[in-house]
Amino acid sequence: MMNVALTAADRLKNGGGCSGRIITVEYQGPIVRVALETPSGEQASAILPDSLFFEAPVRPGESATFVWSERDIHYLQAG
Q1: How many CB atoms are located within 10 Å of the residue 59 CB?
Q2: Which of 13, 18, 29, 45 could form a disulfide with 35 if both were Cys (CB 3.0 to 4.6 A apart)?
């Protein structure tokens, strides 16, 4: 499980989460973008400070859970 999910029980009460397999890890200077794909084929990504990522790094193919607070969600619109 990724470091962003350490408070999963508390955050799931007031936000959301998804689990799946890591599909990409992109190092972008001071941040790292991690993307996963759920068993149903949906994709999600998280952007983390590199210091947080390196506390519990993950690699493509590994299982992970993203957990977030409702206030942290950034919705994207199609097209």
Answers
A1: 9
A2: 45
